[in-house]
């Protein structure tokens, strides 16, 4: 079964199984599934979601970032043997049943300490700047949204129009007094997906920028409306990599 092994230096601190259809949250707060009690780790730092046939690591806009194999990422489709660096701890992703494949809490404080170590600076310098890739044409792959907060799982954008709002008939239901019955829509057009403001006092935001009319979504954009936050994806996960036990040759969507 796919699992995560938490390590600090050469010490194994824990092993966590992750089932298909589930997720693991990672952070300093005690309500996380994987608690890392270190000031360099944000309260809710990252999470691992089971999406379709793979597992994806999502950084939750943490203070010090998340690294996979020493590369800074916003998101990354995990492959067997990937090493995730969060603060000074390491999380090794394995699709093997044998835990040996992964070899290789005090009072909570809200303020996260900015890391300043030579190893951290080296990883940042080696990382490619995180520039969103242009949207793939929808004849290659349908887009979908993954919940970062306010919900769980994913929303496939297969329909030509997705409604977001507090109306119970909305495809994505968002609660809140200032949220309109239909606050926004996502339409599928020949050149990609567009998010449009529809109504209500609470305007949708894309990458922390308010959307007053319409904006074209790009891979890894973060969409926020009310208490709901979602990340937009166009890339499919590695094919059958978990069932075969191989690394599947998946690409990092943030590369």
Shape: elongated
Order of helices and strands: EEEEEEEEEEEHEEEEEEEEEEEH
| Low-confidence residue ranges | 98-110, 130-140, 238-255
Helical coverage, percent range: under 10%
Beta percentage is: 35-45%
Q: What is the CA-based Rg, rounded? A: 19 Å
Report strand order across the widest sheet.
2-1-11-10-7-8
Count of helical stretches: 2
Structural class: mainly beta
Describe this structure in words.
There is one protein chain. The chain is mostly beta strands and 255 residues long. The chain is built from 2 helices and 22 strands. It has helices at 118-126, 241-244; strands at residues 3-8, 11-17, 23-27, 34-35, 46-51, 54-59, 66-68, 71-73, 75-77, 83-86, 89-94, 144-149, 154-156, 161-165, 172-173, 184-189, 192-197, 205-206, 209-210, 214-216, 222-225, 228-233. A 6-stranded antiparallel sheet has the order 2-1-11-10-7-8, covered by helices on one side. A 6-stranded antiparallel sheet has the order 13-12-22-21-18-19, with no helix packed on it. Strand 21 and strand 22 (228-233) form a beta hairpin. It is elongated. It starts with a strand and ends in an 11-residue tail after the last helix.
Write the layout of secondary structure elements.
Elements: E1 3-8, E2 11-17, E3 23-27, E4 34-35, E5 46-51, E6 54-59, E7 66-68, E8 71-73, E9 75-77, E10 83-86, E11 89-94, H1 118-126, E12 144-149, E13 154-156, E14 161-165, E15 172-173, E16 184-189, E17 192-197, E18 205-206, E19 209-210, E20 214-216, E21 222-225, E22 228-233, H2 241-244
Parallel strand pairs: 3-4, 14-15
Antiparallel strand pairs: 1-2, 1-11, 3-5, 5-6, 6-9, 7-8, 7-10, 10-11, 12-13, 12-22, 14-16, 16-17, 17-20, 18-19, 18-21, 21-22
